[in-house]
Design goal:
Shape of chain A: globular
Number of helices of chain A: 15
Number of strands of chain A: 21
Helix content of chain B: 25-40%
Number of helices of chain B: 9
Oligomer: heterodimer
Number of domains of chain A: 1
Strand content of chain B: 25-35%
Radius of gyration of chain B: 18 Å
Number of strands of chain B: 12
Strand content of chain A: 25-35%
Strand order of the largest sheet of chain B: 6-9-10-3-11-12
Chain lengths: 469, 258
């Protein structure tokens, strides 16, 4: 039985049973101006944010659906719960004891500590976790680093938030950016002052779970000049939202000579439409690195984007997508070279199995004047059986002559000879297949912090279960 | 009782019959050479015994001890003590040698003994280092991807390393000489003789006569046209060196005529 089945079972057993009444009593489905005003009021937001939300709603109603990617016409937007206040959610969460044994086992197999498992299962406040979080926070605070829930940051640092919020991904960017602007709730705010270098990756494990309904979470990250940080969002166990739409937004501002790495392992439940927007503005001699793993989610449209705005800016995009039965992973890197001597490198690896479909939809754009820019794009896909597919749409818009561009793509099936070699050494066909697949994604997994790399490999192993006969 | 007993084996690849009623018995503990010219069916024999999916067995049987190999998956054959040193060892990108060896070691030992407990990584690395020193493969290879970027000789040494580590009952060495210079070949043969435990059986498949003086087999079988046409002791080496396979080709065609 595949791990995701456990997850779906949890979805049903936890959310569809005893707690359902409490849950539906206080929350409303569908989107309206009244709901937007209510969100803003409950969060005690400044006037500009309400105005911004209302503008988002207006744009959402005015804009048309994307004309590419996965079919979104099946989503009933009136049937989605866009917002639920934490106090309403209290009745919605469950006790750890009520979580079915097979789910607990899944967490154990992932190697996630119990405190974290409880949080991931949506069982409410975790004092241990909160304490751990606060302790780390103090260390960063001494350096002037701000790391907060974005709702909290909006109260504490309204000017700073206002200066950057949705300036990288404007609300009119696309229809789901407009929706996000209207209903965003929770998320992360990270501000690293000039020259501060944080060596350990900042993690959003605990943070996300403070809002278990964070389907429209906003991540706003600012790296001042010469600063360095790494941030990782681990949705390494699925979230159990009742809504099936995730339209989050990640905005990153990497200033001159700064360096930032954003890593994420997204593993949403299979009934989720993951329509996330991630973008970075990268200034002079700054470096932005995206490392991402996409598993789970029935439908994904996600194209992390780097805009190289200053001379010598650099972007690295590393991505893994795994499409299992009934999944379409429509992903890809977008890089815009808008200044001279900018460089970028893209490595995408996809695995398709049991009829799953991977689509690589990348964009490489070199603007007029971005002389001396260099880019290297490589997409490798592995197709595990005859029913699965992999498609590649690498768009290139090159408006400057003095540039260097490389594009390589490979599509392969599992090599029978490799499989036999491993089996002849005593590995079962399934274990051999898992080893080959893990080897295939290794160039990306090795860039993840160790504990995430371990989780990523385990997740892949779980996806690989039942591959044979 | 013979360790390996092949009776009337008919097998081939891609619909082409290559082994034609091959019969062969090999006793435990022996070093055996199977010699044959190109196209005689040597690699087919090695691969069909190990269970390569492209090779088909049409009829006949091959028993390893009491088990009929053709009833078993490749990994089960390995668990029952069969090992094939590949003519062309496969590269596994992104998988380092020590993790591969550990997975194989644990899987085989677990299959052979349900009580087996996986060896901690530290101890396992020690064990691998010991074997690497034995086969003359630098220890740094442990962290390299399996066979990726290895020279021909390094690949063959890596196969012998696996042989030393996995301790099969029956090891088939498929054209281990190919791609090796004489010094490397000498070293491989000496290593094989040195690591061989009394109960272990080595079957070297080759077309290269000089292998015989290096490996010093107890038995020599000549494979031609899909059949064993001559079996004997080391004295066959002399005939092969002086007259080549022609000596046996004559006999086999005469046999057909008769």
């Amino acid at each position: 039985m595949a791990a995701l089945d456990y997850i779906q079972d949890l979805n049903r057993s936890v959310f569809d049973t005893a707690n359902q009444q409490d849950y539906t009593k206080n929350v409303v489905k569908g989107l309206s101006e009244a709901l937007i005003r209510r969100i803003s009021k409950e969060k005690n937001e400044p006037e500009w944010m309400l105005a911004h939300r209302l503008k988002g709603l207006e744009q959402w109603n005015a804009m048309t659906m994307p004309t590419f990617g996965v079919d979104l016409s099946v989503i009933d937007f009136e049937d989605i719960i866009y917002y639920a206040a934490p106090k309403e959610m209290a009745g919605y969460s469950t006790k750890w004891e009520d979580v079915p044994d097979d789910i607990k086992k899944t967490f154990e197999r992932l190697g996630i500590p119990e405190a974290e498992r409880k949080v991931l299962a949506g069982t409410g406040a975790q004092y241990d976790s909160l304490n751990a979080y606060h302790k780390l926070k103090e260390e960063w605070e001494k350096l002037g680093v701000l790391f907060e829930d974005l709702d909290v940051a909006l109260q504490k640092y309204p000017d700073l938030v206002k200066k950057y919020f949705m300036k990288c991904v404007p609300l009119h960017d696309h229809k789901f950016a407009a929706l996000h602007a209207a209903v965003w709730s929770g998320g992360t705010f990270l501000y690293v002052p000039k020259g501060v270098k944080i060596t350990a990756p900042l993690q959003a494990y605990f943070r996300m779970n403070a809002k278990s309904m964070g389907q429209f979470e906003h991540t706003l990250i600012i790296l001042e000049e010469e600063s360095e940080a790494q941030y990782i969002e681990g949705c390494s166990a699925p979230k159990y939202g009742s809504t099936s739409l995730h339209a989050g937004c990640v905005e990153v501002f990497v200033k001159k000579d700064a360096k930032f790495r954003y890593s994420s392992v997204e593993n949403w439940s299979q009934d989720t439409y993951n329509l996330n927007t991630k973008r970075a503005f990268v200034e002079e001699n700054a470096t932005m690195e995206w490392v991402g793993g996409n598993l789970g989610s029935g439908r994904t449209m996600l194209y992390p984007c780097s805009v190289l705005m200053g001379r010598g800016a650099h972007a690295d995009h590393l991505g893994i997508a795994f499409a299992n039965a009934n999944q379409i992973q429509d992903t890809g890197a977008r890089v815009i070279h808008a200044a001279p001597d900018t460089t970028s490198s893209v490595l995408s690896k996809s695995i398709s199995k049991n009829g799953g479909i991977n689509v690589y939809r990348g964009l490489l754009q070199i603007n007029k004047g971005a002389k001396g820019s260099k880019s290297k794009v490589r997409c490798d896909s592995l197709i595990l059986d005859k029913t699965s597919k992999s498609l590649t749409f690498p768009t290139m818009r090159v408006n400057e002559d003095d540039v260097s561009i490389g594009h390589e793509a490979s599509t392969g099936r599992i090599n029978e000879e490799q499989l036999f070699y491993l089996q002849s050494r005593g590995l079962s066909e399934e274990a051999a297949l898992g080893m080959i697949v893990n080897g295939f994604i290794e160039p990306i997994v090795r860039e993840l912090p160790l504990e995430y790399a371990v989780e990523m490999n385990r997740l892949i192993e779980m996806e690989m279960e039942g591959s044979i006969g | 009782m013979a360790l390996l007993s092949i009776k009337n084996l008919i097998a081939g690849v891609a619909g082409k019959e290559i082994l034609r009623e091959l019969n062969l018995e090999i006793e435990a503990g022996k070093i055996v050479a199977i010699m044959g010219p190109n196209g005689s069916g040597k690699s087919t024999l090695a691969n069909v015994l190990a269970g390569h999916p492209k090779y088909e067995q049409t009829s006949g049987e091959a028993k390893l001890g009491t088990k009929n190999l053709f009833d078993l998956k490749p990994e089960e054959r390995a668990a029952h003590g069969l090992f094939l040193a590949f003519q062309y060892p496969k590269e596994i990108p992104g998988v380092n040698l020590v993790s591969f060896l550990r997975a194989a070691y644990n899987a085989l030992n677990k299959a052979r003994d349900p009580q087996f407990q996986p060896v901690p990584l530290y101890n396992f690395k020690k064990l691998v280092q010991e074997k690497m020193d034995l086969v003359g493969l630098p220890r740094a290879f442990m962290n390299r991807n399996v066979n990726e970027g290895f020279s021909g000789g390094e690949k063959k040494k890596c196969e012998i390393l696996q042989l030393a580590l996995l301790e099969p009952e029956l090891a088939i060495l498929d054209e281990t000489d190919s791609g090796l210079d004489i010094d490397a070949l000498k070293m491989v043969c000496e290593t094989v003789r040195a690591i061989k435990k009394p109960h272990q059986t080595i079957v070297m498949i080759t077309h290269y006569e000089r292998m015989l003086s290096l490996l010093k087999p107890d038995e020599v079988h000549v494979l031609m046209n899909g059949k064993i046409v001559k079996s004997g002791g080391p004295e066959l080496a002399g005939i092969l060196e002086n007259q080549g396979y022609e000596a046996f080709r004559e006999k086999s065609s005469l046999k057909v005529l008769a």
